[in-house]
Design goal:
There is one protein chain. The protein is α/β, with parallel strands linked by helices. Helices cover 41% and strands 13% of the residues. It has one domain. The chain has three helices and three strands. A three-stranded parallel beta sheet has the order 1-2-3, covered by helices on one side. The longest helix is centred in the first third of the chain and has 16 residues. It is globular, with a radius of gyration of 14 Å.
Length: 100
């Protein structure tokens, strides 16, 4: 885990504890998100911080269509985004939204 991951995790935790509305977006790249399991597990743990009666934190899985400097990278396939959604379900995130 890099330093930026810790910073992001801390900021999410602060937002949850302060009670502000929070939504989490996760870009999913075909062949690039080898750590999608780790990401889903970390978000699931962070979601446990919130109060039991608080609404579920919306999690959005974003399908990517690279352009410009990323021309050689394929768009995220529907299979990859669906597989990522299943991983989030298995980590206890009840309703990850897919944006395709």
């Amino acid at each position: 885990m890099c330093v930026n991951d810790y910073v992001v995790e801390e900021r999410i935790e602060e937002a949850i504890k302060s009670g502000v509305h929070l939504e989490i977006s996760v870009p999913v790249y075909s062949g690039k998100n080898n750590s999608i399991n780790r990401i889903a597990q970390k978000i699931a743990v962070l979601c446990l911080i919130q109060e039991p009666d608080a609404p579920e934190i919306p999690v959005h899985l974003l399908r990517i269509f690279p352009a410009n400097k990323w021309e050689g990278i394929p768009a995220t396939s529907r299979e990859t985004i669906e597989h990522s959604r299943q991983i989030f379900f298995s980590c206890g995130i009840e309703n990850p939204t897919i944006h395709i």
